Amino acid sequence: MLEKIQKLLKRGETSADIRSALAELDIAKLSDDYSAAAARRSALLLSGSDRDVLDAEKDVESARLAIERAEAARNLLEGKLAAAEAREFDENFERQWREADAEAKAVFEYVKAKVVPAAAVIEEALQRLEKADTMRLHLYRRIIENVGFDNAAGRANCPDSVMERISKSELLPPWITSKFAAVSRRIW
Length: 188
Fold this sequence. Notes:
Blueprint: H1 2-9, H2 15-24, H3 27-47, H4 50-145, H5 152-155, H6 162-169, H7 174-187
Helix pairs in contact: 1-4, 2-4, 3-4, 4-7, 6-7
């Protein structure tokens, strides 16, 4: 039994290896072996020779030592298991942290490379939208002022707004269309 326990203690350092070693420690079976050896010794006290009783006592002592060794190994393995689980948790967490940090850095670089220039273009487009809507509003007022007159303003309809054109075209995703609409509403 001692040799088997020593092999179990030398197994790998992963929690799975340690759990496997713990599963092989069958203390219940060792207790049954001890009980059987003690019962055999008791029976020999009344029926066996001194030699038989002394041999039976050796068996009882060996069975007791096997239990104690298995319990000591279990205690040691349980401590190693707790340490292995803590180490594996830390390793897993640190790996996940590194992955999350790497992804955050990659997204930041992507934003710098792609989104910042796009944001500048969008900002310019919003400014142009504001200018176009202001020009349209000016025309709209002139048309109103000239209703009934026989001139270009009196006969004209107001041109479609930028927002009307954007909405009809469905070129942009809704979230950005709403940004353009918000700027356009400020003018009108």
